[in-house]
Amino acid sequence: MRYAEQGFNLEIDLSRGSIEKVATDPRDTELHLGGLGTNAKILWDRVPPEVEPFSPDNLLIVSAGLLVSTAAPSANRTIISTISPQTNLMAFSMAGGFFAAELKHAGYDKVIFRGKSPDLIYLWIHNGKVELRDASHLAGKGCYETADLIRKELKEPKAQVASIGSAGENRVYFASIEVEKSSCSRLGVGAIMGDKRIKAIAVRGTKDVNVARPAEYFEICTEMLQSMRYRLDNPLQGFEAMLATLGPQALSHADDGFHIDNFAWGNARERKKGHWTEEYASKWEADQLQSMERHISCFNCPVKCGGIIKHPTLGRFPMKCYSKLTYPMAAYADLDFGFKMIGIAQEHGVDGYTAPQVMAFAVELYEDGILTDEDLPDFPTDSAERHFYLMEKIVRREGIGDILADGVYWAARRIGKGAEVYDHNTIKKNEQMFIKLGTLNPMYYLLYATGEKLTITQIEGGIPQAPLAPEDREAYVKDWVQIPTGKEERFKQFVLEWGDEGKKAPFWPDTDLLNELVEWQESMHYIDDSTGVCAGVSSFMPKPPYHIHNYPDIISAATGIDFDEDKLWKLAARNRNLVRAINIRRGLKKEDERPPDDHWKKRFPEFEAELLDNYYKFKRWNDQGVPTREYLHELDLDYVSEDLEQRGFLPGEAKAEAQNE
What predicted TM-score, i.e. pTM, was given to this entire model? Predict the structure, then answer.
């Protein structure tokens, strides 16, 4: 018997219309866990680098994390992996909600799509019954409308539905897959779903998910739940409201002054210090109170970080936390505009980070005369109305929207006429968090430069985002149990000193400590994304309930596979380096690993190059950022090094020996 997982994937060949239930290899669980880890293994094995994103040979993998549908609190993540149309690299996007749990209860750990359907379809999974159904009547429907219509058609009100809207159908490069209370938004996974002519996946399951040691597991999960409730009732001292408990809690409060004053407005162009006045804050809070109906949680989670919005013209719709800020700040608008735009955008199915920046980019090009009235006929004068106008053009690929639908990087190069200069907030062709700061932060430089996820909130975490006030530091480190073994004193001393005279960016901390801090943050995310645990109770939050010391016990009791801290750390490194290897052989180069030029006002190019070189050495990558043969061997990835050597990314053994001599 398999524990924590069902041991079966659904293989759907859309070109042939075939459906196959395939048993999985338990050895892959021990090496990669599930979710992102096993997704990466499948992509490596079955999608060679010659395969283009919109090729029938590209896969779309819809996966539940390993611990999803067990008693582990907040283990509810759907992890979708494919090759991104925006970056041509591996895309992995995560969603909360209830979809992954339903998939596991239906008896499957993953659904793997290959090929392309000749007609628009949706997949219906009901325990052992699986069928491809006609979706022609759903063409052009919004994400939530599609889900409602499918449930009515199936007479299954409890079915969970993952769907695309107009953006996905029209292969917008930043199209999302909406799962009602959450979404897989980043890197164009919705465009791949639309290209394969899949309108939706509906699932209903009632099967059990077994764990290896139930009594032990239940005791661990109960303690975990208690620690979460304590943290929710006892916010951390010295942190803003969004990060003080668990979540992050963007919808449980309206105190957004930190982000309003410090993050960038428009096309990630300017900070508006002092904009958060008493009058502005009062209006912002009133808009939120008027629009918020209630707070909601995902499957088996005590943290209510989502919300149900009620809108006078759009009705009720769910909302994720941070998109509350992205649309208003891009349009120089208020929260009332934000809620309306979010409702429209989620129905169309677009990424709430990229879409606002693409629209702000277009507005800036128009204001500077690069785009004209010929490109934007009947373009409104009001900023908010301009964004509504652009949204409709983009999701339908109408006129200039057909160009903008490829994202800022590609649109700038298709438009030309100097538009490339306005592409100033992308890394590896993907739009980043709209942050423009002062002096270089070396830790965030490395996180931004080398992160494979291309979303800073899915790379950072575990430590304060900025120096704590001196009076808050001792309290923070006092019971900081989450630090990896052997690093306790150095990490605590870092927090105690950070911000003191001579202990500030950019030339502090020392390189060794800096590298260790970066690796820890990233490693915890890779564990979360393989187990399906929400980063909001683990890797993203300071002092979270899940950490490197209790994760091994949780995974061991669930799966029956014995893990300790060292084995789990090695597994995280294995998954992380496998993802990197996929991207290396798809063309990722060292020169791609750099934040935008204006991300910080004060830059230090020679020091930044030194930071990157030192981090590569620390990670045991060569000078081009390719994992070394020796390190891949230690990670049980010899098949990866052999492939990279054959493709010329690693020197052959004879050449390596000559170089060593």
Answer: 0.96
